[in-house]
Amino acid sequence: MAEDFIVTPWEVTGDIDYAKLIKEFGIQPMADLPAEFQKNVLFRRNIVFAHRDFGRIMSAIKNKKKFVMMTGLMPSGKFHLGHMLLAQQMLFYQKLGAKMYVAVADLEAYNARNKSLAELREVAIDQYLLNYIALGIDPKKCDFYFQSERSTDAKKANAYYRLASNFSRHATFNEFRAVYGDLSPGKMDASLLQASDMFHAQLPEFDGKMPVLVPVGIDQDPHLRIARDMGNRYKGHEFVQLSSTYHSFLPGLKGGGKMSSSDEMSYIAMTDTADVVKTKINKYALTGGRDTVEEQKKKGGNPDVCTVYKYFYYFFEPIDKDLKDRCKKCKTGKLLCGECKGDLVKSINKFLKKHQEKRENAKTRIKEFLVSD
Ligand code: TRP
Ligand code: SF4
Questions:
Q1: pTM, two decimal places
Q2: Pick from 46, 71, 78: which is nearest to 260 by CA?
Q3: One domain for residues 63 and 151
Q4: Are 72 and 102 in contact (CB under 8 A)?
Q5: Which neighbouring-strand residues pair with 72?
Q6: Domain range holding 110?
Q7: Which ligand ends up closest to the CA of 327?
Q8: 65 with 197, same domain?
Q9: What is the residue with the minimal CA distance to atom 6 of ligand 2?
Q10: Residues 160-185 pLDDT 10s
Q11: The 3-state secondary structure of 211-259, one letter per residue
């Protein structure tokens, strides 16, 4: 059954076997995390489940050395709970002292989707930036930039685009094809630019040589493999190799691999109203419940295949004991899906009510983020 799943940057489907991905991709399971990581649900529950070269980041944290956390976003569709997974990690590392670089992949999106740069910019601000600010990300420690407009400082901008271009000497067509399958000029361009996103913080024009952590969903690993190879072979500057962590996917309401923006009824957006959340969960959330109430009371439900339970696990039941209780009550038939869904609706709406207020207030702070000099 677990045989038929697909995880690529362009497609995530099926019943994902994460242990198998660890082997196939040649990454390491997370291990021996210090206490401050254990306090965070995403690490404690192994949602961030694997890494490459993460030891370097842990020693930087331990020795109070500078490090960069770098990530990028595709400005398409609405910001939903799936995106919050990464945003919470960003916040976590910022609090640990990381300097943040966040690339809006508007050039990548321009090639892949049929939108103008102006429209993409609008989505990036309205959907991503406002939610980042509302979640507590500090603009002073965050270099938020657009791929299409790296910096008003020509020295910096030149260095960034020069690196992307120079990287092309260090990968072959066959390597690109092996990693990306169906190849196009747009994909190659995006790959080179993304490698520069990941490495350019270490250039002398920016923060200089230092560890860089790129936390991503496991589907993004092909990009990292290519970037690492190019960074390794590049002779113009000696880089510290990238560190990366990989998180598993929050499924869509209807199940399946990953919460995706393409089906409005399959995700909870940060801007959804309380009524919409209620309808989406009650109508569409796939549970591990039985066909009848009697049967469920007798045999119990199955939290392992339940999206409602997953949402509690990822975000909405942060106290381990409460989660365990819920699991037990489900399995023994003491908790029925209707009530359980009601609990989730309540938790999500409580969170969203506050979040949406903060998001409104964030509108006055957009400017603080939009100075890439
Ligand atoms: N390709 C990424 C995506 O599809 C976006 C991205 C661009 C990115 N540059 C990056 C991600 C640098 C991580 C690091 O979402
Ligand atoms: Fe899922 Fe809750 Fe139903 Fe159990 S009771 S199957 S956790 S919705």
A1: 0.94
A2: 78
A3: yes
A4: yes
A5: 103
A6: 5-248
A7: 2
A8: yes
A9: 288
A10: 999 999 999 999 999 999 888 888 89
A11: CEEEEEEHHHHHHHHHHHHHHHHCCCCCCCCCEEEEECCCCECCECCCC
